[in-house]
Amino acid sequence: MAECKDKKCPVHGDTKVRGITLQGTIVSDKMTNSVVIERKHLVKNSKYERFERRKSHITAHKPPCIDVKVGDKVEIGETRKLSKTKSFVVLRKVGDKK
Ligand SMILES: [Zn+2]
Q1: Per the domain annotation, does 14 fall within a domain?
Q2: How much is the pTM?
Q3: Ligand 1 centroid to 52 CA: how many Å?
């Protein structure tokens, strides 16, 4: 595994993960050390008794020691606010295709 000197890394740095953890799919990794994660969820529409599909985008910090790319499913954990848009950090890859 690559050496990691990232202070915002939950494993090697001093960033503590607390609060909620979520799972989502990476839709963009164009930023340095950041990824955009999409979460799909269902919202009940009571008038028509159906579920609406909704999605939300969350920007998360990606430490250099975690190797993920667009399309990967990842688990993210809530941290203190890391930058203007980031308050989550990528913890690990989930659901690796077998
Ligand atoms: Zn690290």
Answers
A1: no
A2: 0.86
A3: 38
